[in-house]
Design a protein that fits this description.
2 copies of one chain form a homodimer.
Chain A lengths: L5 H9 L7 H9 L10 H13 L3 E5 L8 E5 L1 H12 L5 E5 H7 L9 H25 L6 H31 L7
Antiparallel strand pairs in A: 1-2
The first copy, chain A, binds a DNA duplex (30 and 30 nucleotides) through helix 2 and helix 3.
DNA sequence: TTGCCGATATATCGATCTGATATATAGTGC
DNA sequence: GCACTATATATCAGATCGATATATCGGCAA
């Protein structure tokens, strides 16, 4: 166990307060960390085994009727490992935005078609913004303040990005005014 | 050639106006699209072969002394493929921010230690902001407006993010005022 | 002029990660 | 009884990353 991946710490963090199955972890990730750190089954299940083998979590069988089910909870070693990671400076900062990539190369299109790209980006960001707002509405009662801070950050960011797209649309139209319509 | 990856279009876009070697493509990516779409040698060289095989680019030997060197340029088919992609709505929007992940789980740390996380995020964003500004200073003369728009977007975004970190630092300190020092 | 360093150039590989798919069972609605 | 969805685990091809290997070139300093 030389070095855990950030995804391993997602799991550690999510089983810290309550025991969870791999399926539940995936579901929670898809409603929370997904927006800045996604995880797929292909990562979660093997990682649960690694972490259990390393003694950072322990699994226990907890079947629902005839359907097998293993829930994991964190160990004292796991808690220590999680805190140690939290105290290290973060290393990974990545963004993949196909829309910005298209905008970057928009010169290859006839003048005026670039607005469609910023409009698509704006629409997508507003959609995510709405998703995050509905998550916020659901989670009003939780006491842990940090997930709330991060969630509000996501809401503010998607709004900022959408506004930037709007400004860029105007700027592009100002340079190619013949496409003002539509 | 069922479906090209966005990285393939990065290559198509970058060899569109001037012939470039794989090495040059990597260097240009690292100073431009890296901030929203990175590419490694492990992608670029195999992809150059795929694209050449598909007839979207053509390579020609252009050695420097005894050092072999292959530069690629786009074909008419490649230009068509690039434009067709630009007209499709973007699909990929991903972000991996280890700092936000740590902030999300900061409740596992003693009160007050969360400020270190937002400070580290802020410092990193300001660093990237400075990098982008120096790139902007170098590229003042280029006429293609779209890379400039994207670059300014990156500058504004990193600034916005740094400011958000600052606001969150104040908010966290307001909740745990005993850590005001340092 | 020799030696070293950094830039140019191509290539590869293990590890990670994604997205899709496969296989079951449980519960719900009709 | 049937269809459908949710729960639960698992796997795999392909994409990607980060690091490393190999080799040549140009410049510069001892």
């Amino acid at each position: 166990m030389e070095q855990l991946s950030p995804t391993a710490y997602v799991i550690l963090g999510l089983v810290r307060n309550e025991p969870r199955s791999g399926y539940e972890i995936k579901a929670v990730v898809d409603n929370s960390t997904r927006f800045f750190w996604a995880a797929s089954y292909g990562q979660i299940y093997p990682e649960l085994k690694n972490l259990a083998e390393a003694g950072l979590i322990v699994g226990s069988d907890s079947p629902t009727g005839g359907r097998r089910r293993t829930v994991y909870e964190i160990t004292a070693d796991g808690e220590e490992e999680l805190r140690a990671w939290l105290r290290q400076p973060p290393h990974t900062f990545e963004m993949r935005e196909e829309g910005l990539l298209k905008l970057f190369f928009a010169d290859a299109l006839p003048a005026g078609e670039a607005v469609a790209i910023v409009r698509a980006m704006r629409a997508h960001r507003l959609e995510v913004n709405a998703q995050l707002r509905s998550i916020e509405a659901l989670k009003g009662e939780i006491d842990d303040p940090y997930p709330k801070i991060v969630l509000r950050g996501g809401i503010e960011f998607t709004q900022w990005f959408a506004d930037w797209c709007e400004r860029m649309e105007e700027e592009i139209l100002a340079a190619a005014p013949e496409k003002r319509s539509s």
